[in-house]
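Appendix B. Raw example, untouched.
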Amino acid sequence: MIVPMSETVLEVVNIRKSYGKTVALDGVSLRVVAGELFGLLGPNGAGKTTLLSILCGLCEANSGEVRLFGQIFNRTRRDLRRLVGIGTQDLSIYPDLTARENLRFFGRLYGLAGKPLEARVDEVLASVGLTDRADDRVGTFSGGMKRRLNLAAAIIHEPQILFLDEPTTGVDPQSRNHIFSQVKALNRAGLTVIYTSHYMEEVQELCERIAILDGGQVRACDTLPNLLKLLDARVRVGLATDVPGFEDRLARLPGAKSVHPIAGGYEVVTDFVPQLLPLVLALCAELGLRITTIDLREPTLERVFLHLTGRELRD
């Protein structure tokens, strides 16, 4: 199945799921287009695992609808499930088998056999950098190697959409970079990827759009630049001395939204630090003020995440 890059691959409409009195998902809706690398964030207990289980056809929602490639999707749709790849957070590979034997096993589950299967196994082993260890037992692998093999198992059948749940948990920096490179390469080749992680910098680097889930609801879903606009930036300037009217002059600078006195200086709230900072420096130079400190605080994905989901610990 070849899906045009502008078309919707995955559509989630008002999905609800409860376990007894516990509401895991409370009206979740989102849309992913073909070829997108889509990030899904949320604290513990936000409903991510439940949502992924429904989207992969592993469990059913209580209500709502999931459409995959324009068709109603549920766990009975084996034809559509064959188009889905799943890289689970808990490793799904078998330690007593070799890397090659693991991939043969998963390939056969998807109907591959004979020479096409062997060729695909060799291709995927090479892509994750495990050709030299193909015939070694997985139980002898490092954590990073197991993660790379887990990714290989998820793509052995050449899926059209790939779900990756915390794919770099507990890996070394080299394996993490290799997984990053492989995910990017798969996406460049046209594979649609849904990527979840607790590492904000991963999602910020990889994903074009990001949904933030909390309390079983989508709190925000947008591009990174638009998400960052949810928070103001701040320029803090420390001064050796002050002059009358300086605060008012700061407040009149283009791009300054508000000014607040702080210990030894001022904080200026703005939408765009690169525009405001040179103006602050020029004003200080004009008035002969000696700057002791400059502190810039621009919005980050982590700050937006904490703003939307809160700072308390989640179990």
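End of appendix B.
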